[in-house]
């Protein structure tokens, strides 16, 4: 499999439940499996309108490439056809609500802080970052969203077992619990996933219309 094909198969697809609420992110392989078995439909977002497509109609729409801005999609290429990887699909028989609480783990903290040291403000590769307890554990600090931040090696060594105030350091921003999965939030920074925004904005669905 070529690098481009592998990238397309692993592309991210937002999954909605039957009630149009975001429940998870899957790769293209899983999305196409759900579509092919008739368990989901593609939600094609154009401007502010949405159209639903089953596997067959999405295949036909993909063949009419002039209907797409092809550079904005990942493509699965087969012997018979080229098919666009959908960005959003909706499960047809699943109406459970998504789990709201974001798990406290290393990946989500790095994503929340955008791989940026919360003391010097410099962005680093994950391999050059660690987690820092703002209030050190030796002083009673615990592992919570409000007490854990990304920290580079240099700042971590400078801070040591002190609070930021004791070390003469300041946080770039106060750490808080994210309202939604911070990995999703990072992806929303790319135009490629702009069509996800309406389905992830809670206010879009919950604010009373007048």
Record keyword descriptors for this entry:
disordered C terminus; single chain; 210 residues; five-stranded mixed beta sheet; elongated; alpha+beta; DNA Binding (I), subunit A
Our count of domains comes out at 2
Which structural class do the helices and strands define? alpha+beta
Strand content: 15-25%
Number of helices: 9
Instruction: List SSEs in N-to-C order.
Output: HEEHEEHEEEHEEHHHHH
Q: What is the approximate shape?
A: elongated
Distance separating the two termini = 53 Å
Mean pLDDT: 83
Computed Rg: 21 Å
**DSSP strand count:** 9
Uncertain runs with pLDDT below 50, 5 residues or more?
203-210
Helix content: 25-40%
For the largest beta-sheet, the strand count, sense and barrel status come to: 5 strands, mixed
Strand order of the largest sheet: 2-1-7-3-4
């Amino acid at each position: 499999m070529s690098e481009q094909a592998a990238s397309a198969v692993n592309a991210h697809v937002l999954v909605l439940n039957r009630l149009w609420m975001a429940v998870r992110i899957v790769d293209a392989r899983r999305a196409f499996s759900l579509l092919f078995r008739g368990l989901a439909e593609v939600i094609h977002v154009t401007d502010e309108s949405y159209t639903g497509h089953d596997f067959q109609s999405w295949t036909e729409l993909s063949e009419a490439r002039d209907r797409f801005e092809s550079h904005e999609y990942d493509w699965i290429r087969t012997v018979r056809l080229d098919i666009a990887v959908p960005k959003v699909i909706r499960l047809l028989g699943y109406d459970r609500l998504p789990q709201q609480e974001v798990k406290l783990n290393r990946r989500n903290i790095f994503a929340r802080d955008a791989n940026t040291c919360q003391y010097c403000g410099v962005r680093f590769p994950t391999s050059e970052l660690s987690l820092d307890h703002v209030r050190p554990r030796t002083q009673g600090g615990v592992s919570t969203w409000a007490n854990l931040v990304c920290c580079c090696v240099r700042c971590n060594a400078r801070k040591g077992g002190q609070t930021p105030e004791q070390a003469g350091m300041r946080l770039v921003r106060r750490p808080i619990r994210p309202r939604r999965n911070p990995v999703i939030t990072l992806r929303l920074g790319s135009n490629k996933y702009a069509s996800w925004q309406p389905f992830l904005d809670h206010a879009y669905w919950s604010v009373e219309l007048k």
